[in-house]
Amino acid sequence: MLLLDSITELQLFVSAFAWVYWLAMLLHILSSWLQLPYALRPVQRFLYDICDPYLRFWRRIVPLRFGPLDFSPYIALFAIWIGARVINTILNQFH
C-alpha cells in the first residue's frame, strides 16, 4: 500500500515538474522574441539560466536552423512532454 502511494506521488511530481519546466521553456522562448522592460530583466535572466543548458543540449544534437529561425526549442518542448509521458507510463506498470 505504501509503495502504491509512493508511485502515485512520484507520478504527480513528474507531471508537475514537466508542466512547470515546459511553461518556463515557453516563457523563455517568448521572452527571447521581445524586448522586456528593465524591471523584468531579472525574470528573463532567470529563465535563461534554467532553460538554456537544456536548449544547448538539443542544439548540439539537432542543429535545425532555417535562417534566423531555431527549431530546437520546439523539439525540446516536445521532448519534455514525451519524457514525462514515458516516465509516467513506466511508473504505471508498478500499480
Describe this structure in words.
The protein is mainly α and 95 residues long. The chain has one domain. The protein contains 3 helices and 2 strands, in the order ααββα. The protein has helices at residues 2-33, 41-61, 72-92; strands spanning 65-66, 69-70. Strands 1-2 form a two-stranded antiparallel ribbon. A hairpin with a 2-residue loop joins strand 1 and strand 2 (69-70). The protein is flat and about 50 Å long.
Give a count of the beta strands, DSSP E runs of length 2 or more.
2
Percent of residues in helical segments? over 70%
Label the structural class.
Answer: mainly alpha
Q: Could you say how many structural domains there are in total?
A: 1
Question: How would a textbook summarize the main sheet?
Answer: 2 strands, antiparallel
Give the amount of beta strand, in percent: under 5%
> Runs with pLDDT <50, length 5+?
none
Could you tell me the mean pLDDT? 89
Pfam families: CCB3_YggT (PF02325)
InterPro entries: CCB3/YggT (IPR003425)
Transmembrane segments: 12-34, 71-91
Keywords: Membrane, Transmembrane, Transmembrane helix
Ordered list of secondary-structure elements with their pairings:
Layout: H1 2-33, H2 41-61, E1 65-66, E2 69-70, H3 72-92
Helix pairs in contact: 1-2, 1-3, 2-3
TL;DR?
The chain is flat, with a radius of gyration of 16 Å. It is mainly alpha-helical. The chain has three helices and two strands.
Considering the chains and any ligands shown, give keywords for the structure:
95 residues; mainly alpha; 2 strands; 78% helix
